[in-house]
From TrEMBL:
Any GO molecular function: aspartic-type endopeptidase activity
Origin superkingdom: Eukaryota
Protein name (database record): Peptidase A1 domain-containing protein
Record family assignment: Belongs to the peptidase A1 family.
Peptidase A1 domain residues: 78-382
Residues in the signal sequence: 1-24
Gene3D superfamilies for the chain: Acid Proteases
Segments passing through the bilayer: 416-432
Organism: Nezara viridula
Active site: 96, 271
GO biological process: proteolysis
Entry-linked InterPro entries: Aspartic_peptidase_A1 (IPR001461), Pepsin-like_dom (IPR034164), PEPTIDASE_A1 (IPR033121), Peptidase_aspartic_dom_sf (IPR021109)
Statement: the UniProt record of this protein carries the keyword Transmembrane: yes
Length: 434
């Protein structure tokens, strides 16, 4: 009797362990069907109406939209001149969708390597919050003393803007002298876009980037309060809902490198403050293997961590394709590489930032004009080649390694666990009835 009881307890424990394992496995998910926007052809700067998330677009008053020329610095930084305080102290500012705070270097700070520093004591509109905080970026951080002051962008003056005076930051190697964050902030502080809206400077909390690849030019632009349809082919947009409360993050259905599907169901943060494409570190070896085996290109890692190779006229790297909102967004070798002397540098950084989050920086924004909508928390991408959800899943099934995708593996595991559980139940029943 004791033997039967012990055997039964072991079976129950084994059964519970498998039960927990099965239900902790990731469930298969259907690809989201994104409702695409209707076509619009009004050749002007426009903004979204308030009544319908998928329309209607209508003409904005010119006074509610501002176009800010951005200077291109070596194709990896874009900045504009912005004035701060009542005495209009001018700085080169980078507009960053990867962070929410606005900051400039503080005067009398020895730990700040920035050459030009803000003299807050000369501004009659500066208010000190007597608070110090640190903002962490993908690479590096900035420690700042918080306050508020006026910010002048073009002919638009934003009053009482929360402002960080950086007492510890690194400007070495950067052309910009401060950052205006365009991401989301907590309820305790308002971003500059939110303040523009509440102060009646813009009618819609919408902005858009156009970044070119002409070093030294000022043809790039940031449009606030609307967007410029001159940069959208056929005026067609594909709005995708943001999935993170703090970042401009959208879901990625699939990532393909050449003919190989390398990732499914990932996340992408659209970050104008990052120059490169940033991929999870676990994909580094995958990129290396595909390039070396399929394209016979010998790679080396540089001191900055980026991959590079010697130019071979007969060989080209494969395209990188991101499927976002059931549309294909492709970067060619020309889009994601930089030629230095005899070497070709691949502008993709692999870091342990997250296991499933990619950062699509300026390289992506140089190729695609994106519209950011605070109110609806969407990013609208230009429409490209649409791919049906069922077709997309079949492509994933065909190309993922191990003769199937992760969803099929989960289903197989579930079936095996079910058979084991049935066997355990049968065994328990045999013990109890014998």
């Amino acid at each position: 009797m004791v033997y039967k009881l012990m055997t039964m307890l072991h079976c129950i424990a084994f059964f519970l362990s498998f039960f927990a394992f099965v239900y902790s496995a990731p469930a298969a998910q259907d690809l989201p069907r994104i409702k695409l926007e209707e076509d619009y052809s009004e050749n002007t700067i426009i903004y979204k109406g308030q009544n319908d998330i998928h329309g209607n677009y209508r003409r904005a008053k010119r006074s509610t939209v501002i176009k800010i020329p951005l200077k291109n610095y070596k194709n990896y930084q874009y900045h504009a001149k912005v004035k701060f305080g009542s005495n209009n102290q001018e700085y080169k500012i980078m507009f960053d969708t990867g962070s929410g705070f606005t900051w400039i270097p503080k005067k009398h700070s020895e730990e700040n390597t920035c050459a030009k520093k803000y003299k807050h004591f000369e501004s009659n509109t500066f208010e000190d919050f007597h608070t110090v905080m640190t903002t962490v970026y993908v690479k590096g951080e900035a420690t700042m003393k918080l306050g508020s002051d006026s910010v002048t962008i073009g002919n638009m003056v934003v009053n009482n803007q929360t402002l960080g005076l950086a007492i510890k930051s690194d400007c070495e190697g950067n052309e910009y002298e401060g950052i205006i964050g365009l991401s989301f902030l907590s309820i305790n502080h308002s971003s500059i876009i939110q303040n523009m809206l509440s102060q009646g400077l813009i009618k819609e909390p919408v902005f858009a980037f156009y970044l070119n690849r002409n070093h030294g030019s000022t043809d790039s632009e940031l449009t606030i309060g609307g967007y410029n349809t001159d940069h959208i082919k056929n005026d067609q947009l594909n709005p995708i809902q943001v999935t993170d409360p703090e970042h401009w993050q959208v879901p990625i259905e699939m990532v393909r490198f050449g003919k190989q599907v390398i990732a499914v169901y990932q996340k992408a943060i659209i970050d104008s403050g990052s120059s490169l494409i940033v991929a999870p570190f676990k994909f580094l070896q995958c990129f290396i293997d595909i390039i070396r085996k399929s394209y016979n290109i010998d790679l080396k890692r540089q001191e900055n961590g980026l991959l590079s190779f010697k130019r071979n006229q007969s060989l080209k790297l494969p395209n990188i394709t991101f499927v976002l909102g059931n549309n294909l967004y492709t970067l060619t070798e020309k889009d994601y590489t930089i030629e230095n002397d005899q070497d070709i540098e691949i502008s993709i950084s692999f870091i342990d930032y997250s296991s499933d989050t990619w950062i699509l920086g300026d390289l992506f924004l140089q190729k695609y004009y994106l519209v950011f909508d605070y109110g609806r928390r969407t990013i609208s991408f230009p429409k490209t080649r649409f791919i049906d959800g069922d077709l997309l899943k079949s492509i994933i099934d065909r190309h993922l390694p191990s003769k199937g995708n992760s969803m099929n593996i989960v289903r197989i595991q579930e079936n095996i666990y079910l058979l084991i559980c049935l066997f355990i139940i049968f065994k328990l029943n045999f013990i109890l009835t014998s």
